[in-house]
Amino acid sequence: MKNIIFTVSVALIALHSTGSLAKSSEQEVAKLTAELTPVGAERASNADGTIPEWTGGMTTPPAGYKGEGTTRIDPFDNDKPIFTIDASNYKQHAEKLSAGQQALFVKYPETFYMPVYPTHRTAAAPQWIYDNTKNNALNAQLKEAGNGVINAYGGYPFPIPQNGHEAIWNHLLRWGGQSEEYSFRSDTVYPNGERTVGGGIVWQSYPYYNPNKDASNYNGNILQLLAEYDTPVRRKGEIILFRDAVNAAETPRQAWQYIPGQRRVRRAPTIAFDTPNAQFAGQSIYDEVFMFNGSPERYDWKLIGKKEMYIPYNNNGLIAAFESKNNKLEDIETPFHLNPKYARYELHRVWVIESTLAEGKRHVYGKRTFYLDEDTWAAVISDNYDGRGELWRVGIASLLNAYDIPVTSLRVISHVDLQNNNYVVNVVDRAPVRIYEGEDEKFHTPAQVRKMSRR
User: How much of the chain, in percent, has pLDDT values that exceed 70?
Assistant: First the structure.
């Protein structure tokens, strides 16, 4: 990581992020309307202009978009790759690749490549998100050894992060819309091309981003997810519900599950952390959905700095390919990894965060490195190491440019297992994701699960 740009002081990076640190000063916060974007990214272009200046992002749909409920077309469909990185030249680009990306070139030299396109800084959010983010910068603080946030609401809590805990909370509290409803598929793909297929419907809400409330009167949850499975047959009718609070230490994840064969709704405390996700036959764990979710309590988080990196971006083309009935699934979900011909990589600046298993804690991953897009705080690449320190799984997430909201949403998230050559792909839309105001407050409750189970 020789080209990491340290944009926070060495002293601050060295701080062990387990306490409640001082808020940003008025002078620092003023940068959010000057050299920084409203969410804390560098506003200016890079030195050679390959990363352009942020000028507000993309806030209006392109010509050809047919409106709500239809596929969000690729606004850059006419772009051509600038160049392609493959096994023959990846070492020339190593400084702009993660360890996991480089490992994919080594492991799959005949099939893995990265088409690199012109960079478009399309990330945008409504003005009230920016206003709240500025207020959070002045007031938000970590709590409970970094496992909770106080005095923040409706925006990124730490646009000028001082440590790893603050940075990962920006990912956990990223702007993803008020609520999402989507019909999804989640598959495990094996080296011989066979796959196990899952899917269902998800209703996902972010009470933290309810514009009609504020920090004093919202319910304290940052993510509420209700999923009803329809595939495979053995899981048809199964329902899970979980709720994550902004103070994970004070209020741990609450989860419930309905299994048709048992005919009752029960608490499900294991739907968290490194519990294997039943949807993937042990190939994926619960806290790597959305790259990382849930409480950060099992790791020590270190903010390494920033670097320029080739990451998935403006991936509407890939997402549309999955939504289309005209494409064969096996053409997209090829053995070893998703078909690179549908991929789009761009050069962007990312925050690099390293998480190391905390003393006395247990997790299947001993270390994880996350790369967060500076314009959205979404984790788009992850390198996940086993307890021996060996690189195990590489996470790659695509970004949907939902210009009609505007929001940038994490979709089509894959984790490639370098040890057994399987991979999983999750949050794949079978139809365009609906981003809307959400359901009644009683919807994400055990009572709703019971109601759905009686249908």
Answer: 95
CA distance 195 to 262: 28
Residue 202 resides in a domain: yes
For residue 323, tell me if it sits in a domain: yes
- pLDDT tier, 22 (very low <50, low <70, confident <90, very high otherwise): low
Place of tokens 């495979």: 232
Residue 20 within a domain: yes
CA distance 317 to 312: 11
Q: What value does the mean pLDDT of the chain take?
A: 94
Domain hosting residue 36, numbered range: 10-453
3-state secondary structure at position 367: strand
Nearest by Cα to 187 from 405, 435, 429: 429
Mean pLDDT, to the nearest integer, of 79-93?
98
CA angle (356 as vertex; 352, 362 as ends), nearest 5: 140
**How far apart, in whole angstroms, are the C-alpha atoms of residue 350 and residue 355?**
16
User: DSSP secondary structure string, 269-284?
Assistant: TTSSTTPBPGGGTTS-
Three-state DSSP at 90 gives helix
Per-residue pLDDT, 451: 94
Query: Tokens 């409970």 — which residue?
Result: 144
